Amino acid sequence: xxxxxxxxxxxxxxxxxxxxxxxxxxxxxxxxxxxxxxxxxxxxxxxxxxxxxxxxxxxxxxxxxxxxxxxxxxxxxxxxxxxxxxxxxxxxxxxxxxxxxxxxxxxxxxxxxxxxxxxxxxxxxxxxxxxxxxxxxxxxxxxxxxxxxxxxxxxxxxxxxxxxxxxxxxxxxxxxxxxxxxxxxxxxxxxxxxxxx
Length: 197
Hints:
alpha/beta, two-stranded antiparallel sheet
């Protein structure tokens, strides 16, 4: 029986992200996933991020709000998302090809799973301050590699206390999980580095 792919809502919090957000949005568009909505939540940027997105990527829904942090921006995106599945992308991160296809396919095949994530690679500049092209990165990740690592599956809370191997930009979850556990805690702030996943 053929099933249509579920609708995916991608939420992108953005604060003064004009310099990098285009590459992030292009990597989402490059997934080739048709049943998709992309929501950029401009978190009080002062560099014209929202206008830049509306001009260059008119297929993206832009929400403007006062600065409240990434959790606050993600929550604003969640309240406006209409997808069956929710994915997150930080404004200065990139996705490798097929990320959305692999994760949506897994969730379709495993109704008992509510959330999935992938590996990620911290994307660092050279000594000259130049970031390498994403296709030159040695990520150790193959787009066709959808195998599940049992060491990082199931109940992993105790492992996450020792080392967080879940990066928000790699997560996809069912809307039902969001409805069950609630929104992000807006009192928590995070440290950010550039990643590719």
